[in-house]
Specification:
By secondary structure, the chain is of the alpha/beta class. The protein has 15 helices and 14 strands. It folds into 2 domains: 2-168 and 348-387, Rossmann fold (3-Layer(aba) Sandwich); 186-343, Rossmann fold. It has helices at 18-32, 67-75, 95-98, 115-118, 123-137, 148-156, 200-212, 228-237, 252-261, 276-283, 296-299, 314-326, 328-343, 347-363, 374-384; strands at residues 2-6, 36-41, 50-53, 56-60, 83-88, 103-107, 143-145, 162-164, 186-191, 217-222, 244-248, 264-267, 288-290, 306-308. An 8-stranded mixed beta sheet has the order 3-4-2-1-5-6-7-8. It has a 6-stranded parallel beta sheet with strand order 11-10-9-12-13-14, with helices on both faces. It starts with a strand and ends in a 6-residue tail after the last helix.
């Protein structure tokens, strides 16, 4: 079979994140099953127009403004695909309109308020409005996601068919859970793309709260992104000095070692598709303390594999961390539960289900009525493409 993924970024894009790592996991598994697998994405400076990553042929063309048109032209030069996967990151590719074959939509999260982190009014309101309209237009297209919150939100927006397939991680859990007492200073970690919606400054402010309460703490921030300068500026304003270390992106072995040393992973995002890095930390025997937002309350089970803060504030995050310090036995229980649970999310457990579903979709004929209308799709794409996805 021939599969085509449409996604705004690929794993080598400077703005790539967990979504691209997960996507490559699914696609490379399809390639290992003997399928021809392609990934069309927009171009970026220094990128090769075509290259192969883990058995997946990555084709790059166009920019935010032109990549959909480039994809249409390129697709017409190819043999027919058995399945086209239209991955939404706020803005879709309108593939049901032009791909001429079976199409499914892949979505990590319904952005909703995240639009306000990237765009001022009225663009943020336009973004949320078009997202709801997109889902309504795609209501007959099968969707695939990893989060129950996202599934419920899609149903509320009128989508009929949503399949839930959990995310997987490549991280192999520690063979044995090593000892890690809650010693001073409290070692914290943040691992994510440094983007406005991740609110990494909240994690830094939580550290300042702890220090002001007499709790010794330090934090390492792993990753880079468009908000890095702003986050570094906040660290300076808070006077954290050597208590915060910005590592930049790390190779997987180094990232795993850092997570293994940390006492707690912090996650302060506005919302997540699920929270991939939570499970990666759990595999290293490190529980998470997260904000009470969609996705994160699924990847972290409150008082079982970690803690969910009572509110989306640095003070609430600091309160949860102090609760851990007061309950070292509970901390060790969370560590073990998180470690055991992380094993179930390894790719070896997740990929067979995902590949079976994708192959089943490819075997079906295009659903009658699933295509978007030319007027609806065309007007929406022309209105939204100039802004690009968040």
């Amino acid at each position: 079979m021939r599969f085509l993924m449409l996604n705004w970024r690929d794993p080598k894009n400077p703005r790539a994140g967990g979504a691209e790592r997960v996507t490559l996991g699914y696609l490379s598994a399809l390639a290992q099953r003997g399928h021809e697998v392609f990934w069309f994405t927009y171009d970026f400076e220094g990128a090769a127009p075509v290259e192969t990553l883990d058995g997946v042929t990555v084709v790059r063309g166009g920019s935010f403004l032109t990549s959909v048109a480039e994809a249409v032209v390129w697709c017409r030069t190819q043999k027919r695909f058995g399945l086209v996967i239209d991955q939404h990151h706020g803005i879709p590719w309108a593939a049901p309109l032009w791909c001429g074959t079976r199409c499914v939509a892949y979505i990590h999260e319904v952005l909703g308020p995240i639009w306000s982190s990237f765009y001022p009014w009225p663009l943020n309101e336009l973004g949320q409005w078009q997202e709801r309209c997109t889902h309504r237009l795609y209501r007959h297209v099968p969707f695939w996601t990893a989060s129950q919150f996202t599934k419920d939100a899609l149903h509320r927006h009128g989508v009929n068919d949503v399949t839930l397939i959990p995310y997987g991680v490549q991280t192999v859990a520690l063979p044995e859970l090593d000892e890690k007492p809650l010693s001073s200073p409290l070692r914290l970690a943040v691992v994510c793309r440094l983007a406005p919606n991740k609110r990494v400054d909240h994690a830094l402010r939580a550290v300042r709260c702890l220090l002001e309460r007499g709790v010794e703490a330090e934090i390492q921030v792993v990753g880079t992104g468009e908000a890095e300068a702003a986050v570094r500026r906040v660290a300076g304003e808070l006077g954290l000095g050597a208590r915060v270390v910005f590592t930049g992106p790390l190779p997987e072995p180094e990232k795993d070692a850092l997570l293994r040393r940390a006492h707690v992973l912090l996650h302060t995002s506005q919302r997540e598709g699920w929270g991939l890095n939570v499970i990666e930390a759990n595999a290293m025997g490190t529980p998470a303390v997260v904000y009470p937002v969609a996705g994160l309350v699924e990847s972290t089970l409150h008082r079982k594999t970690g803690l969910v803060a009572k509110a989306e504030t640095p003070d609430a995050l600091a309160d949860s961390l102090q609760d851990l310090l007061k309950a070292p036995e509970a901390y060790q229980r969370y560590r073990r539960n998180a470690w055991e649970r992380a094993k179930t999310f390894h790719w070896s457990n997740v990929l067979p289900q995902a590949c079976d579903w994708l192959e089943g979709q490819a075997r079906q004929s295009p659903v009658r009525g699933s295509e978007l209308t030319v007027e609806s799709a065309g007007s929406r794409v022309s209105a939204l493409s100039p802004g690009g996805p968040p």
